[in-house]
Specification:
The chain is of the alpha/beta class and 531 residues long. Among the domains are: 2-137, Response regulator (Rossmann fold), CATH 3.40.50.2300; 140-308, Alpha-Beta Plaits (2-Layer Sandwich). Helices cover 56% and strands 12% of the residues. The chain is built from 22 helices and ten strands. It has helices spanning 11-20, 37-47, 63-73, 88-96, 109-139, 141-156, 162-171, 199-212, 239-254, 277-289, 302-307, 324-333, 339-348, 357-377, 382-388, 397-437, 445-451, 456-467, 471-489, 494-500, 506-517, 521-526, and strands at residues 2-7, 28-34, 51-55, 78-83, 101-104, 180-190, 218-224, 227-234, 261-267, 299-301. A five-stranded parallel beta sheet has the order 2-1-3-4-5, with helices on both faces. It has a five-stranded mixed beta sheet with strand order 7-8-6-9-10, sandwiched between helices. Helix 2 (37-47) packs parallel to helix 3, helix 5 packs across helix 21 (506-517) and helix 20 (494-500) packs across helix 21. The protein is elongated and about 110 Å long. The protein starts with a strand and ends in a 5-residue tail after the last helix. The model is unreliable at 193-197 and 309-321 (pLDDT under 50).
Length: 531
C-alpha cells in the first residue's frame, strides 16, 4: 500500500476528499492531513508519504512553496496539485516542480481516483525499473570486476594516454584525482600446490576484499584467481601512512591463514603522475619477485630489494641459495616475467663461487634435478621435460646463468601449457553445463562451479581469461540469442519467450533485452530495430 497525505485549507473540501475516496481499494493508506503547508511540513517529513495531495492556494505557506520544499527533501514523493485557478502561470510553475498531476476544482470522485491510479502506476513502474537496474547491476558485478581488471592492465601496461585513463575511469565510476599514487601487489599461494583452491582460502580473500571496501582511497584490481593489485591515491604527506595501512590490512587478515597459504605483499615507488604508474607497477613487480629468494619475508619493498645483496643473511656464504626448494618453488609459483630477476639475484648472491668449474657442475645438476622434481609435483611428465631441456653449458658463469634461465623458462612454459590445457577443460565443462541449463532462472557462477567441482573464484578467472568475457556476459548473450530466435518465429508472447530463456519475470526480461539489444522485445519482433 502507498501512503498518501492531504493538505487543504478548506475543511469541507479536505474532509470530503478524505471520506469519499476508497483509499484501500485503489492501493493507498490515508496517512494524514493538514490545513496548510506550515502545519503539514513536519508531519510530511516524519511520515514520508509516497503521494502528496495539496491545494495550490493556502494561508501561511501556499501549495507551490510547500511542494518546492517537499520536492527538495523527498524527491521520490509524487505531488498532486489541486487548483481553483485555471491560470497558465500556476500550471507552468507546477510543471517546473515536476508535479505529477494538476487537477482543477471542483474535484470529482472519479477524477481523483483516476489521478491516484495513474500516479500509483507511475510509482510502481519507476520502482520496478529501479529494482531491475539494481538486479542487473548485481548480476553484472562479475563483469565490472573483469572490466576493472582490463582497465588496470592497460593502465600499468602504458597502453592508455592520460585523457583515455580519465575517460575509462569515469565509465567504471573510479575517482582517480590525487596528488600522489602508489601500487601495492599481493598474492596468496596455497600450501599444497599452485592449483589448489580451498573454500577456506576463498573465504580469506573474500574477507580481505571486504576490508578494502572501507577505504575509498584504496582501489583493488584482480590479477588472477589469487593475486591482486591495490592502487593507492592521496595527499603527499599521507601516502606513507596509507601504504602502511594497506600492508597492515593484508598482514592482519593473512596472518591467521598461514596454515592454508603463503602470502606476499610488494610495495612500489610513489609517483605524482598517472602516466608514471607503469614504472611504479614495474617496481612493485620487481619487489614481488624476491618472494622466491626471501620466502620468509612477507612484505617486500624497493628499499629491501636494493639492499638485499648487502645483507649478511643473503651473502655468498648463505647456503639458503642452494636450498633445492628455492628452485622448485619458483618453478611451481613463479611467473615468466620474473625469470630474469630471479636468475640475476640468484647468481649475484652466489658471488665468486661460480668461478669454480666443480661448483658450476654441481649447480647445473641441481637446476636440472630440481626442475624435474618440480615437474613431478605439478603432475607434469618428467620424461617430456627432460627431452625439452636445453644442452648443458658450463664454459663460464655467464653461460651457466643462461642455461639456468633456459631451464626455468622451459619448465615454466610446460607448467603454463598444462595449466591452460586444464583451464580450457574447466571452461569447456562450464560451457557445456551452461548450454544445458541456461534456461533455468537460478543458474549462477556458484551453481556452475559446484557442478564441475571447482572454486568459484578460480572458475571466474579462467573463464574470463579464455572467453574474453565474464560468465554473466556469456550467459546473457546465450539467453538473448535464443530470445531473438523465438521472437522472430512468432506465435509466442513475450512472457513465454522470457520463461523459455530463463527469466521468470517477463518485465525484467524486457528490461535486460532492451539494455543489451537496444530495443524492446516487441520492437524486435516487429522488425522496427534490426541487429
Amino acid at each position: 500500500m502507498l501512503k498518501v497525505f492531504l493538505v487543504e485549507d478548506e475543511r469541507l473540501v479536505r474532509e470530503g476528499l478524505r471520506d469519499m475516496i476508497p483509499w484501500e481499494q485503489v492501493g493507498y493508506v490515508f496517512a494524514g492531513e493538514a490545513s496548510d503547508g506550515e502545519m503539514a511540513l513536519p508531519l510530511v517529513r516524519k511520515i514520508k508519504p509516497d503521494v502528496l495531495i495539496t491545494d495550490i492556494k493556502m494561508p501561511f505557506m501556499d501549495g507551490l512553496a510547500f511542494s518546492r520544499l517537499v520536492s527538495r527533501e523527498l524527491p521520490d514523493t509524487k505531488i498532486i496539485i489541486l487548483s481553483g485557478y485555471d491560470d497558465f502561470a500556476y500550471a507552468q510553475q507546477a510543471i517546473e516542480l515536476h508535479v505529477d498531476q494538476y487537477l482543477l476544482k471542483p474535484i470529482t470522485r472519479a477524477s481523483m481516483i483516476q489521478a491516484l491510479e495513474q500516479t500509483k502506476a507511475r510509482i510502481e513502474e519507476e520502482r520496478d525499473q529501479q529494482d531491475f537496474r539494481s538486479r542487473f547491476v548485481r548480476e553484472s558485478q562479475e563483469y565490472e570486476h573483469y572490466a576493472r581488471r582490463l582497465f588496470f592492465e592497460k593502465l600499468v601496461g602504458g597502453e592508455l594516454r592520460v585523457p583515455e585513463i580519465y575517460e575509462q575511469a569515469k565509465r567504471l565510476e573510479l575517482e582517480l584525482d590525487a596528488e600522489v599514487y602508489n601500487i601495492v601487489l599481493f598474492t596468496l599461494q596455497p600450501k599444497e600446490s599452485a592449483t589448489a583452491y580451498s573454500e577456506q582460502s576463498a573465504a580469506l580473500q573474500d574477507n580481505l576484499l571486504q576490508d578494502f571496501l572501507q577505504y575509498p582511497d584504496l582501489l583493488v584490481f584482480r590479477g588472477n584467481a589469487l593475486s591482486y593489485a591495490v592502487l593507492l591515491k592521496g595527499n603527499r604527506d599521507q601516502m606513507q601512512a596509507q601504504t602502511r595501512r594497506c600492508t597492515q590490512l593484508i598482514e592482519q587478515r593473512c596472518r591467521g591463514g598461514e596454515a592454508l597459504m603463503d602470502w606476499y605483499v610488494a610495495v612500489g615507488t610513489p609517483t605524482e603522475r598517472l602516466s608514471s604508474l607503469p614504472r611504479c607497477y614495474a617496481a612493485a613487480n620487481h619487489a614481488l619477485a624476491y618472494r622466491h629468494l626471501m620466502p620468509n619475508v612477507h612484505i617486500l619493498n624497493t628499499n629491501l630489494v636494493e639492499h638485499s645483496g648487502k645483507l649478511s643473511t643473503y651473502s655468498a656464504a648463505d647456503q639458503g641459495r642452494l636450498d633445492p626448494t628455492l628452485i622448485q618453488g619458483f618453478i611451481q609459483n613463479g611467473l615468466e616475467t620474473e625469470i630474469e630477476d630471479f636468475a640475476n639475484e640468484f647468481f649475484d648472491g652466489l658471488g665468486d663461487a661460480c668461478d669454480s668449474l666443480m661448483f658450476r657442475h654441481y649447480l647445473l645438476l641441481s637446476a636440472r634435478i630440481n626442475a624435474l622434481a618440480a615437474a613431478e609435483k605439478l603432475g607434469l611428465s618428467r620424461g617430456e621435460l627432460a627431452e625439452r631441456l636445453p644442452q648443458p653449458a658450463l664454459d663460464t658463469a655467464n653461460a651457466l646463468r643462461e642455461y639456468f634461465v633456459q631451464v626455468l623458462s622451459t619448465a615454466i612454459a610446460m607448467r603454463d601449457e598444462e595449466s591452460i590445457r586444464q583451464g580450457g577443460g574447466i571452461v569447456d565443462s562450464a560451457i557445456e553445463y551452461i548450454d544445458l541449463h541456461y534456461t533455468e532462472e537460478d543458474i549462477s557462477l556458484n551453481t556452475v562451479a559446484r557442478a564441475i567441482n571447482i572454486s568459484t573464484n578460480y572458475l571466474s578467472a579462467v573463464f574470463s581469461h579464455k572467453m574474453g568475457l565474464s560468465f554473466v556476459e556469456y550467459l546473457t548473450q546465450k539467453r538473448m540469442a535464443r530470445a531473438r530466435q523465438l521472437l522472430r518465429q512468432g506465435g509466442r508472447r513475450t512472457s513465454e519467450v522470457a520463461a523459455e530463456v530463463g527469466y521468470r519475470d517477463p518485465r525484467y526480461f524486457s528490461f535486460v533485452f532492451k539494455k543489451t539489444q537496444g530495443c524492446t522485445p516487441r520492437e524486435y519482433r516487429a522488425g522496427e530495430t534490426e541487429r
